[in-house]
Every structure is written in C-alpha cells, then in structure tokens.
Amino acid sequence: MKRPAYHNVASGVPDQWPIRKALTLSDVDITHPFLTLARQLVENHILVHLMPQEQERLRVEGQVDINAQDDDTGDMHAMKLKWRGSYYNLIGKWGKLVRAKGLDVGQEIKIRWINGCLHFSVSPKQVVAVPPLRMVTAPLAQDHWPVKKVLTLSDVDANHPFLPLPRRSVEDHILVHWTPQQREILRNEEQVNVNARDYDTGEVYVMKLKWRGNYYNLIGKWGTIVRMKGLGVGEEIRLRWANECLYFSITPERSAAAAPGQALDQWPIKKALTLSDVDTNHPFLTLPGKSVEDHILFYWSPQAQEQLRNENQINVNARDDDTGELYLMKLKRRGSYYNLIGKWGKIIRGKRLNVGREIRVRWENGCLIFSVPQ
C-alpha cells in the first residue's frame, strides 16, 4: 500500500510548515466545501496552541471558531475547526478559498499555527505525486463498481478487440487514483500499461489503456477475454480501480448463467484454525494479507482503506452466520497478514473452537460475516 498524503519534510531544522497535504477530490469539491486534516497532526500542531476554554468547547460542541490567514494574499477568514473522530474538517469559507485560489487535486497546502491564528499557503505550481485520498470513517463504498457498460456488437468483435469506455467515467473513477506522473504519461504517449484482473476468476492480464479523445480504449488481451468468457451483446461489464489494478467483472446473474450448476463460492476466505488462533490468553484470528485485501478491503471505500493504512486498525462489525450474533471487532494490519481482534476470545469459548476446525469469512453489506461449520 502507498504512504498517506500527509507528510513532513525531512531536514535538519524543524519545518516551519508542520502540516502538509496534497489536496484530494473531496477537498476541492465546492458543493460540499471542507478541508480534511489528519487527527494526529491537528492535535500535535494546532490544538496544543488553543486556550483551555477553546479546547473544552471543541470537546463539548465538536467544533470551535478560529481565525485563518492566507499567507499568499494576507487575507483573513473566520472559519471553524470541526472534530470528526479520526480526523478534523476545516469549514466556513473553504469553498470560497477553493474558487478564489483555483485549487485543484494534487496541489499542496501547508498549515501552521502562529500567534493565535491558523496560517496556510498553497503554492500554485507545486504538485505532490500521491494518489488522491481522503479520510472518512464509512467502511463501505457507495458503489463497488462505479464504471458499468452494456456490451455492444463492436465490443465483443474478437477480430477488432477493444473495449471503449466513456472519457468522463474513466477520468472520474480510474485516472483520479493515478499519480500526476502516470496521468502525464498517458497524456503524452496516449496509452499506458495497466494490470487488469478478472474478479470472477482471479486471472490477471497485462493490458493497455489508450486515450482516444472523448473516450478510452482498453486493449491488449480484450479479444482473449471475450473468447474465454464467451461475452455477448447486452451483457454488462463492471470496472473499478483498486490496489493499483483495474478490476472487471461480469454481472453475477450472467456469471451464474454461464456456469450452470456451479454457484459462486460465497466464502472466498477459508482457514483451518491453528494453535495461536484458538489461544484464549492471546485471542486473535490471523488472516492472510492477500485474501483480506482481495475479498474484504476490495469492497471498502478508498477513505476506509486510508484510515486502516494510517492507524493500522479499524473497527468492523462482525456477524456470526451460524447464530446471527453481532460483534464489534477490530481488523488490525500486521504487514503481510491481518488480525481480527476484540471479541475473538469470547467467540472461541462460545463456539468451543479448536485446532483444525475451518472458519469461513466474507464481506457483505458493510459487515464481516464468519461461519464455522460443524
């Protein structure tokens, strides 16, 4: 996973701008104007300078009035700092600032607190090479597959294999996750290699995304995919960018029809419990990193993935499919694997789990579902 967009500049002297952030799509959205800032940075470099009364107001009311000065122009603005749990929002005149300064994705904003006032600066020419991310707590994306297309006759013509995709959809839901350098390569060379993964089968293909003005073509192995999956006119393909890869899938109804009598496995993660998994003195369930990322994190929004990346753990709702019981648990990142912690010890005792039993896991409707067959 990539590092978060928040960072401090390494140097031999303290940075006069301790908070720096590459602006994301949500930061420059004037329809819902707010600037999202990381909790730890705000508490370390802003809240420590507030008066005790202001800190108390922020704790009780969830927001506090502050003065903010634009160091580029000298203009002063009355704004609010709002607490959102794992992050803070700067609201008030932010939408006006976005419009007035012409702020865009990738530009860097620098923030500091001096003499009772929040100071900020945005260099018009500086672009930080990080994919746009924002931090919210919602664990489930609004739409797992934001790009959808009903296949036409030309789309499934294996003699001229390419899949045209609308420009706006590609730029809003795929290119937005690329670094400025990657987008520049596409603009200059008009095509770029991408890894494409068939989510239904797990097959990975090296393909090309080619810019064609008002649309983009997906080329390379498209003819092979058409033949192998037996694609026809009227079927729907769904696409999404996640984990540096273009995922695609044919609608579940179509997939089931393509393989009569072979239902898709509803339990993509299965594991035989080990001694450490059933140790009630140190209760946690270890899950392979790749399985978690492919079958759980894949369904999360980029914001929730970023929260997990920053804090190394995140609350999840877990439901025992065998009993219907709900548990509030935590998913903890441990490098090449993940731990499920919280109520795991209680589950071990309640279900009398022991070494060798199989646990099955899936993600569904914002909840981690698990089952231990008898």
From TrEMBL:
TM ranges: none
Top-level lineage group: Eukaryota
Keywords attached to this entry: DNA-binding, Nucleus, Transcription, Transcription regulation
GO cellular component: nucleus
Compartments reported by the entry: Nucleus
Family matches, as Gene3D superfamilies: DNA-binding pseudobarrel domain
Stored SUPFAM superfamilies: DNA-binding pseudobarrel domain (SSF101936)
Name of the protein: TF-B3 domain-containing protein
